[in-house]
Structure prediction request, 344 residues.
Amino acid sequence: MAQNNEDGRYGEIANQGGVVIQTQQDMKDLADRVDVNPSDVISYPGIPATTDNSVCRIDINDLVFTVGYNKGGTRGKLNNAIPVSSNVNGLFISKLRAAYPLANPNDEEEQLQSLSETIRVLGQALGGTNPIPDSPAYLKVNFTTRAQGSAHITNTGDEVLNPGDTILWDLFRKNEIMDVTSTSTGTSVRFSDEWKSKMGRFGFNLKKVPLKLTKLSHSHVSFEKSLLTASASRADALVKSRSNTAQGKFANAVLDFVAEFLFLSGTIKPNSKTEAHDDSAFKSLVAKAMAHGTPASQAQFNDSINKLIKGIMYFVNDLDRRKVGKALSFAKPGKGVDVLLGAS
Prediction:
């Protein structure tokens, strides 16, 4: 339902409208997370799924999202309300449906990237749910979500958000939630002090893992890591499969392009030491490779450029999919932030 902004309820930005939609707690998703066979899926490597109502419920101002691992299945919709979740505890994806095989199936970064590709954020919950009450009479799964316009959400990340920042979401790593220390009697696992300070606000259960907010300027780091991981994998003859996630496709496209370019221009030397370090020199090398190569090698080079562009588009599309909106206020970690949903 689109609403105008004549009375200023949705912020002070001219012509800014608010869009609200009807949503409901995804009860099938909740049941599947608890009952799934761990050997059949890639599961969130953090805190596991639970039916504790204070953990699995959707709270007001939560970022809510749909999950796509059961795409095409019956989601138990009521009155056309969109089924959503707000925590990632026990989030999973079938190994048959995942961007699989992963180059390193036990690597947490690849697991998180594969899981993240099942998520589509819808917006800010304007109501809460009570999915597993003590009495069936108090069952509440339907609520309203703001999908566009100004919203107020919690800065769940570890960075200070400033007005104008483009905000994206990510998944928490296990070491961001728990501290693991060795003692004389064994291993001690407890919530980290940073997690407590960010998430221990009134009414928020420490066991509930929401989406993590991050800045656009810091989101490229995971893609840089994927390049390093892919480079290391190429050096290992035992690794016969490469990651099919967005990060993996991006990294593989870049490395393939570099390898093919070096192969095609291997007999061509730069005119000077500086030629290999600027854009004009690169263009010169490309021109020489095209001029001296055979028609087959020229076609191969053109094909490698097309693959490189596709790899970059995987990168761009993945960042766009993670977009929450534009920050309208300052917010330290654990504090509330005003956000213009969907703005770049």
Remarks:
- Residues 295-321 form the longest helix (27 residues).
- Confidence is low (pLDDT under 50) at residues 8-15, 70-74, 235-241, 272-277.
- The two ends are 22 Å apart (CA to CA).
